[in-house]
Amino acid sequence: MIAEAKDSKKKPNQISIHQSERRDSNKVWDFFCSVKLAVVIILVLVVACILGTVILQGKTLDEYTAKYGYALATFFRITELTNVFYSYWFAFLLVLLCANLICCTIKRWRNTFMQTGFVLTHLSLILILIGGVVKFQLGVKGGVNVYEGKSVNYFLTQMINRQGKLDYIKKDLPFTIALDDFILEKNEPKFQLVSYIKDKDRQKILEVKVGQKQRVPGSGYKVTIKDYIPDAELKQEPINTSDTPDNPAIFVKLLDSDKVTAEGWLLAHDRNYYEDKKQNLRIEYIWLPSQEELEKAVSSIETARPKVSVMVSAQGLSQDYPMEFNKTFKLEGTEYSLRMLQYVLNYGDRRPLSEQPTDNPAVQVEINGPEGSETRWVFEKFPDWDKMHPAKYKNLKVTCSGITSGHMARNTIRLFQLPDGKQVMVSIKDNHIVSTIPWELEKKYTITDMSRQLMVSNYFPSFDFKREVIKKSDEVGVPAIFVEVDGPSGKVDDWLFSNQQYATWYTDNNLALVYESTGESVKHFTSKLRIEEDGQTVAEKTIRVNDPLTHKGYVIYQSSYDPEAGTFSGLQIVKDPGIPIVYSGFGALCFGVVFIFYIKPFLRKKQKKRGGGIMK
Amino acid sequence: MSLINMTLIVYVIASVAYIAREVWRSGSTRWVSLGLLILAFCLNLAMVIKRSVEAGHPPFSNLYESLIFYACCTAFVYIIFEFIYNFRVVGALASVLAMLILLYATLQDDSIRPIMPALKSNWMLVHVVTYMLGYAAFGISFVTSIIFLVVKPFAKKETKAVVDEREILPRNFDKLSYKIVAFGFPFLTLGMVTGAVWAKKAWGDYWSWDPKETWSLITWLAYLVYLHTPLILPKMNVNKSKASVILACWLLFAFGIVNFTFVGLNYLPSAADSEHIYGSQ
Ligand code: HEM
């Protein structure tokens, strides 16, 4: 508007050359003064900023090529789209913005009080941009890791070089930083109770409050925590509950010249073997129902066949099948059939079977039913795996056992037992039966070719555990909670331990509870630093995040630490001479906007009320 | 009933009351609807306070906490405006907006986690509070822009009696939106500046072009454009009526940017490198 007024005042008969010069310079001046230019620059900056977050910034050429392909990566590099905020064209935009700001501010400068805000905001942005240039030209930013008790007098800065590779540049410091001590403080571990509802695939954290009945959100289950022990231990004492052999078990000891090297319970129906891979020794405990079976078994070197068992939970059926491949088993009383496809000793291991350790044995099965076929892996050590993972035939629970027992060790000892008390021990070596003798309790038997002896020291016809939860201390160690769940099949209660590996399932296999630690989190990490110059200590401070040390224009920040051993401290070192300029800009900006949008309207209103002359 | 459900319901009832007030247009319904919204705000504030006490730190350490606080600020800023200006219908949508924010909060993980060391700073407190007040104002300007755009085609035919002379009619909501943005913009600026100062203290640099920083700059620039555009549209031969529509549309768009900056950054490929973005677990 002012420019127009000037033009109209011009006399038409001015010398033409001068006039056109004036006009041109006026045009340039007007261009740099216009808000239109301001808005256009800002919009272009917005687009640049968006590009700078959509395209990954500051990566190496290899990373770009891998992500975007060679052509696009090259294009990004040439146009500096890989480094938008430090590119020449972005800098050019900022210079243009600055010019625009300066011109418009000068043009509209009236030196009136009401204009304070306008002038301050516009100048503040210029200050901030100048401060940014100073930082870019004279500032440095890098980092260094210092070990406890050691010192450094340099740090490293990172940059992408012309070849698009990551480069570290060593920068010397005019002093030495010594790390006297590094302290990592952790928060007390916290524990949470997580509920999981399978058919809704929904997980929720429940409150751990003793005595309060709470609903599991989105379901009809009610959970009550009835007891809490901050440091609990589960004592399982083996006991014999009756003389009828319901769950026969023997306690076996391995001795090396009267010293016990290994001992433990073998359960006929459950964990019925012990294996010592190093010694290549295997001990099996086999319970047989009759004399005929025993006769067959003692003369055979066949290994116990692994079996796959299928439970149809809806009908409450359970069936066992021997592990035979490519044979279809019909699940009696149901519409399902099952086929075993393959097995591994260590799931995910690419090596041939004979080289795999028996760490995670699994069988792959195919289930055929009314909705077509489903293939799933069944893990011996994770019998609940299929419950936790979506499957087509959710109501079919498939488990497997004894896969490892399919492998014959060099030395195998079989301890047979019959209901009538008959006990036979068969030693097999290299697939040959070496001896067949009766065995008795408390007697030592030497194992062929080995210095080891074997002794069965106890026999429980009906083995069971007496479970008892005891309190070890009042401090938080391994906390446990006693939980009662009320659901469609009534009330069930159990202890949940925070160190338990698996979920605890409610009887309908739909609700699972896990009581677990949320993990230790870091509370504080601090470094006790000492600054030395010529061997003299000139400054000392314990720094932590949010509280750095400043010396000779360098600011030293606590930025990270050694996550494994916690022995080194990661320091960030920054020097930025532009800070005073930028912070003045920040102050002016804040005051300016508050002035424009709060103080000025307020003053205007007051003026209007007084009916006085309008101040510009 | 849990506090959060109660708050949600009172927001809905307040919204209905505002619509009722719009239909009957009697003076007394004003206090009913405003009273309900103030009640909802108090409940929301109680949630914020309860959460800070339970967590033992200011309630902005994760997305759940920030959203609850954001809803609270939205109600607060609206209530302030209702005391300053006398306008219609805005309250109905403002309480729906606060309700939606709260509803979105219920979808987030609400477990209490210890806060990381960098968040233990007074700058962070000022930073978040000012930002949320700014965002809340932009939310209200979003609402007024919607109403303006909806009412605009019928503006001339409007004949209903005006109850209160000072009442701002929806056809003048373009000016109202400007005032609300002008109220919020200083807060946004303060939020950005205090954020920069905090970053300098905690990470050694006031600005590092982190995605969150960059997007908050984009937000700021979007509203800066809005504040400067009225100066150029008349010069570009855009008539007043068209200009007001363009500006209202720009506010809708800018509020989209606000929300993206707030909760959408996880979708960016650069999010993985950021120290700043709310975790997506
Ligand atoms: C915090 C940021 C800013 C605020 C609060 C602000 C505020 C203002 C205000 C209130 C005016 C009107 C002055 C009057 O009518 O006397 C104005 C004008 C102007 N602003 Fe800004 N501004 C800001 C940033 C910028 C930026 C980044 C640019 C870009 C270069 C810019 C360019 C302009 C221009 C060119 C004018 C002149 C308008 C004219 O000639 O009529 N402003 N600004």
TrEMBL record, chain B:
InterPro entries: Cyt_c_assembly, Cyt_c_biogenesis_CcmC, Cyt_c_biogenesis_CcsA, Cyt_c_biogenesis_CcsA/CcmC. Keywords: Cytochrome c-type biogenesis, Membrane, Thylakoid, Transmembrane, Transmembrane helix. Its main location: membrane. One of its GO terms (molecular function) is heme transmembrane transporter activity. It is found in: Membrane. One of its GO terms (biological process) is cytochrome complex assembly. The chain crosses the membrane at residues 6-24, 31-49, 61-80, 87-105, 125-151, 176-199, 214-233, 245-268. One of its GO terms (cellular component) is plasma membrane. It holds the Pfam family Cytochrom_C_asm. It is a multi-pass membrane protein. Residues 61-260 form the Cytochrome c assembly protein domain. Belongs to the CcmC/CycZ/HelC family. NCBIfam families: cytochr_II_ccsB (TIGR03144). Required for the export of heme to the periplasm for the biogenesis of c-type cytochromes. This is Heme exporter protein C.
